[in-house]
Amino acid sequence: MQAIGDAPGKTPGSSNLCLESIAAILSFWLTNWTIHMRDKLPSIQKPFIRRLLLMLLGAAGIALTARSFAEDSDSAKPDDAAKIAAQVCSNCHGPGGASTSPIFPVLAGQHQLYLAAQLHAFKDRTRSDPEAHNYMWTMATLVSDSMIDALANYYANQPTVAGQPGTVQEIARGKALYEKGIPERGIMACSNCHGSNAEGHWVFPRLAGQRAQYVFRQLQVIQGQLRKSPVMHGIVKDLKPNEMEDLGTFLQSLP
Ligand code: HEC
Ligand code: HEC
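^ thats the input. predicted complex w/ heme C below
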């Protein structure tokens, strides 16, 4: 299958314009359908439908960029990444990656190397929790390696999201754990790697402003070894669910 970002090897012409119109209609319809289906299927019970949906979304993305790619060679351009982000990724991750949904992670302002590494992890299927499988595997397969870099660059340059208020006690407990760890249980302070303001750096993800529910789920996924994160495995192996919840609420509250 053609990956988003691969040069289709056609010359520009009216057939591409026609393709663009069809793609625009398809994309509009798919957007509405995605939202409709997402509400209808809040839990991952119908992976087949989801995968089909992703295939269609991917196809819309290919068609939308077909014209711009037809005119040049093999490397994805920033404009093409912005187009894919707006037409495909924003259906779940929000405009500019500023997700407001508890299940879809914020991508806005995330670090480029980390984002690219995750898209490769979906593509290579080393990130294999049910959500990764149902939502991102097909998506990542459809994106070429150069488009991965362009998309990662696009999201890294979007403005970060504002923090959200949460239960005061949870935030206080989460903050203490984040900054000090739990030395008597061998849990290292998160700030050592993710930064004192959870701003992250390089391949250490930014956690500030991330959705609490997503953080909670990822800590469980990493603990359950469904995600290959050798550095994190040792740190989270003894974290309790209530501590993960506190951490999520604290991190979501940070700007
Ligand atoms: C149908 C919904 C959906 C669409 C469309 C979608 N994603 Fe995702 N994405 C998700 C979900 C759900 C997760 C969380 C996966 C998990 O729990 O492991 C995710 C996770 C990610 C992550 C990992 C974030 C992190 O903090 O580790 C990246 C990067 C990502 N998506 C990029 C993209 C890009 C780029 C596109 C467009 C090409 C896209 N996604 C389209 C649902 C979607
Ligand atoms: C020794 C460094 C280190 C420490 C300490 C550390 N982390 Fe991480 N963390 C990482 C790395 C590296 C990743 C990226 C893993 C990957 O590529 O899958 C990560 C990923 C994560 C993610 C997934 C982010 C996303 O967007 O999907 C969460 C959540 C997280 N860490 C939370 C924590 C918390 C909470 C603590 C403290 C209890 C902590 N980390 C301590 C290095 C660290």
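The two ends are 40 Å apart (CA to CA).
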